[in-house]
Design goal:
By secondary structure, the chain is α+β, with helices and mostly antiparallel strands. It folds into 2 domains: 2-163, no CATH class; 174-327, Reverse transcriptase/Diguanylate cyclase domain (Alpha-Beta Plaits), CATH 3.30.70.270. Helices cover 62% and strands 10% of the residues. It has helices spanning 2-19, 30-50, 54-75, 87-96, 99-120, 125-164, 174-191, 205-212, 214-231, 255-267, 295-311; strands at residues 195-202, 237-242, 245-251, 281-287, 316-319, 328-329. The structure holds 3'-deoxy-guanosine-5'-triphosphate and magnesium ion (MG) (2 copies). One magnesium ion is lined by residues 201, 242, 244-245.
Length: 336
């Protein structure tokens, strides 16, 4: 946005200089035009030096461009094709600005273009035809570009959301989870808060599909997603990272806190009320040590603990690094 705006002002200065080489029936405007060319050059270089500042680029530069052009039209003898250049700042406002900013830019454009035409050529029919044609065409172009940009923004937002989420459960998918996990680890490192990773895996889930059908299996997976949602604290990242495997990042929770979370999930009525009856699950828990853990390291640790829980007979949770401790059983509550 910043580069395009700088380019617009520099190109404006070059364009004014280039018109001096064209055949000119009236050279009385040369001094004024030189000054305006220098202003355009100065604005371009000023913006370049100021760096990409959003307010300057998105809120000031397009309207300033319109005002500069209206001044050019007021002093140019003859006006010639100068109004064509309004297209530049209007397109900038339409593409980068909000709808309200575009309306403001168009209002400044219409009023100052009319005033400039009246000053430059008060009785010139062609100038007024240029005014009407310019106002209609550039307003239409600005509105169309602005609407297309709004739609494009909405599509990009939707794509970003779907690329990070699992369609079956609405939880994050592996890709979205990786981003959230890294973010939470960084936050825990900054604040010194504990953080735990939990990996949950449904026990003998293949048998659910085999006995009750795939649709019933999907229903169970959705229920697990709901159970995780209802037991987590706001902000904890929840993901379905494999077929019947889920991961949760618990911010500000140590291994014991994570264990209590897993027990609540296993005991949730949602885990028992599905088409296949009470669902048993196994869990592996890994707690981040004082700033020393990477996402990969924690995933590996939680995965190892999960393997230990499975090997010990399923329906239980294991904590990485606590191999001597008896595994906590995870009891599904009988359906009401
Ligand atoms: P274990 O106790 O060792 O975890 O056994 P398991 O049967 O749960 O594990 P296994 O890895 O052998 O099988 C996982 C099954 O999950 C296989 C597959 O049919 C099922 N599955 C994976 N994705 C989906 C899905 O999206 N929907 C349904 N309904 N089933 C799925
Ligand atoms: Mg399983
Ligand atoms: Mg599995």
């Amino acid at each position: 946005m910043w580069r395009v705006t700088v380019a617009m002002y520099l190109a404006g200065a070059v364009t004014i200089a280039a018109t001096f080489a064209a055949p000119d029936p009236d050279t009385s405007d040369r001094t004024a035009m030189s000054v305006l060319g220098a202003v355009s050059l100065a604005l371009g270089l000023g913006l370049l030096a100021a760096g990409p500042r959003r307010v300057l680029v998105a809120k000031v530069a397009p309207i300033a461009g319109v005002l500069l052009l209206s001044t050019v039209i007021a002093v140019a003898r003859p006006i010639g094709a100068t109004p064509l250049f309004y297209l530049w700042p209007i397109l900038l406002a339409a593409y980068y600005g909000s709808s309200r900013y575009l309306v403001a830019t168009l209002a400044v454009f219409c009023t100052t273009f009319a005033a400039a035409s009246a000053i430059a050529a008060p009785s010139d029919d062609v100038a007024w035809l240029l005014f009407i044609g310019g106002v209609m065409s550039f307003t239409l172009a600005g509105v169309v570009v602005n609407r297309l940009k709004r739609r494009l923004d909405a599509v990009v937002d939707e794509l970003r959301r779907t690329a990070a989420s699992d369609p079956l459960t609405g939880l994050l998918n592996r890709r979205g989870f990786d981003v959230a996990f890294q973010r939470d680890l960084d936050r825990a490192r900054r604040t010194g808060a504990p953080l735990s990773l939990v990996i949950l895996d449904l026990d003998h889930f293949k048998a659910v599909n085999d006995r009750f059908g795939h649709a019933a299996g999907d229903d169970v997976l959705r229920r697990v997603g709901e159970a995780l949602r209802s037991e987590r604290r706001a902000g904890d990242a929840l993901a379905r990272i494999g077929g019947e495997e889920f991961a949760v990042v618990l911010y500000d929770a140590d291994a014991d806190g994570a264990l209590r979370f897993v027990e609540r999930v296993a005991g949730s009525p949602l885990m028992s009320g599905g088409p296949a009856g009470p669902m048993s699950l196994s869990a592996g828990i890994a707690a981040a040590e004082e700033g020393a853990d990477t996402p990969e390291g924690l995933m590996l640790a939680a995965d190892r603990a999960l393997y230990r829980a499975k090997a010990a007979g399923r329906g239980r949770a294991a904590v990485h690094g606590q191999d001597g401790r008896a595994l906590a059983p995870l009891a599904p509550r009988a359906a009401a």
